[in-house]
Amino acid sequence: MASAGGGDRLSALLDVVLEHVLSFLPSVDAVRTCLLAQRWRGLWLSTPSQRVDGESVKECHRFLDHMLLLRGHAPVDTCDLSFNDFSKRDVPYLNLMCRVRVLRFYADWRRGERLPVGDLPLITNTLTRHGAALMSIVLAVFVQGMIQTILCFLMDCHPLRV
Amino acid sequence: MAAPESGDGNNGAARMVTLISSDNTRFEVEAAAASLSQTLQLTILDGGGGGGDGIPLPNVDSATLSKVLEYCIKHAPAAANGGAPNATAVDRAELERFDNEFVNIDQSVLYSLIMAAHNLEIEGLQSLVAKKVADMIKGKSPMEIRRTLGFPDPTPEEQAEMNAHMLEYGWAYE
């Protein structure tokens, strides 16, 4: 059982320590910590990482919309996105979330649909505009649970096939 | 502290340093283990902490320091190997098993460790304890999180505030 005052001791830690804790959480859990105490209200907003795992962008879009809106221009270092289902119409969402240094994106591509690889350099354009210095994007595309393609976009924004 | 398991010093014996906790307990430990702390590393490189001197750590009590050093001693060999790229799967599994058991501790000890890991800048330990707290939060309702982390039950005012917040943050509870 929790010792008395444990929560207060935790709340007394520095922002940077609590943000480190939140960085290990999926974004949905990080957001929920704002209910713990006044101290925690805005912490999730300044956590430099986002993690969203979901069935599909469609299923998560309300969450994504609110999160992106509230975060505004708060800097994000790392963004991990994982969807079981992802298709070409979801690419704009990816663009919204990619003002980051590292984007790791895992998706199970719809069978039969052409991979919108031609559209994806849009992502790197956005990153360039925002001046990410050490950008790397790892895009793992899964088809039926198997890694099909891994694309690495490096500083010069040329996709490299691995 | 226990005798070093292996010495890689020039004369066969590993260099030892002494750390002094806030309650004046002295801990003698291999320099390689203590150097996992970024905070201590420079002092140790400068030759500090040896002989009768010792490095005082006014922010860390002896119970916490002993726990911190347990972690450092276990992780020092792998760290010396540069993150052990050639470590065997068995070694890695053993470290993982150690880590899991290491954070299976009383909450007050865990919170002290978080502070100590931060002050001493021991990267691996910082992540290990932060991840442990994150695991205590993951997938729970606000009330469950409060109880798990040791927050007192909310007063009626706090409860009302929580309810209002939950309405506002409905999108995070779908």
Written account of the structure:
- The complex is a heterodimer of chains A (162) and B (174).
- By secondary structure, chain A is of the alpha/beta class.
- Chain A is built from 7 helices and 6 strands; from the N terminus they run H-H-H-H-E-H-E-H-E-H-E-E-E.
- Chain A has helices at residues 6-11, 15-22, 27-32, 43-46, 57-71, 91-96, 121-129, and strands at 49-56, 78-86, 102-109, 136-143, 146-153, 159-161.
- In chain A, a hairpin with a 2-residue loop joins strand 4 and strand 5 (146-153).
- The longest helix of chain A has 15 residues, at 57-71.
- Mean pLDDT of chain A is 67; it is low at 114-137 and 144-162.
- Chain B has a 3-stranded mixed beta sheet.
- In chain B, a hairpin with a 5-residue loop joins strand 1 and strand 2.
- Chain B folds into 2 domains: 16-138, Potassium Channel Kv1.1, Chain A (2-Layer Sandwich); 140-174, no CATH class.
- At the A-B interface, helix 1, helix 2, helix 3 and helix 5 of A face helix 5, helix 6, helix 7 and helix 8 of B.
- Chain A: Keywords: Membrane, Transmembrane, Transmembrane helix.
The helix fraction of chain B, in percent, is 40-55%
Strand order across the biggest sheet of chain A?
Answer: 1-2-3-4-5-6
CATH architecture classification of the largest domain in chain B: 2-Layer Sandwich
**Helix and strand element order of chain B:** EEHHEHHHHHH
Largest sheet of chain A: 6 strands, mixed
Low-confidence stretches of chain A: 114-137, 144-162
Quick one: biggest sheet of chain B? 3 strands, mixed
Oligomer: heterodimer
Low-confidence stretches of chain B: 1-10
